[in-house]
Every structure is written in structure tokens, then in C-alpha cells.
Amino acid sequence: MAEDSTPDEAYGKTWQKTERKFTHKPASEFYDPCQDFADRSLKCLKRNNFDREMCGDYFQAYRDCKKNWLNQKKGVTNPN
């Protein structure tokens, strides 16, 4: 039972089907500048047996980053 195409050809066909969708999406759907803060929050939770009170600073840093990033996207220079 041999297939008609090699794995490389199958990958190429799949990429051709999705390339336009992938390359024309806004950058924000692929890159989150606050992902590092999110990762640190999750690591803190795991390290502290999921005690949210121990990781409040990490959560606040993520919220602040996300708020600033969204304000930048909206074009707000001084949200205060």
C-alpha cells in the first residue's frame, strides 16, 4: 500500500492550502509580548502548589504588561 506522495510533498500541499491564511493574519495572533510574564506566572503556580496568593506579583506584572500592550495597539499614549 504505497502512498502517491512523499511526506515532503504532502507537507508542501498542506502549506499551500494554509499559507495565505497564516501570512495574512495580524501579528498579534502569533506574537504576544507578554507571554514571558504568563509563563512566569504558571511556573510560580506550579512551584507553589497552585497557591495563587504566592504569585500575586507575577499576575500583576502580566496584567500591567497586557494593559500597556493593548493601549499601545489602540494608540493610547497615556492611559492614566
TrEMBL record:
GO terms for cellular component: mitochondrial intermembrane space. GO terms for biological process: mitochondrial respiratory chain complex assembly. Keywords: Disulfide bond, Mitochondrion. It is found in: Mitochondrion intermembrane space. The keyword Kinase does not apply. The keyword Disulfide bond applies. Required for the assembly of cytochrome c oxidase. This is CHCH domain-containing protein. It comes from Penicillium steckii.
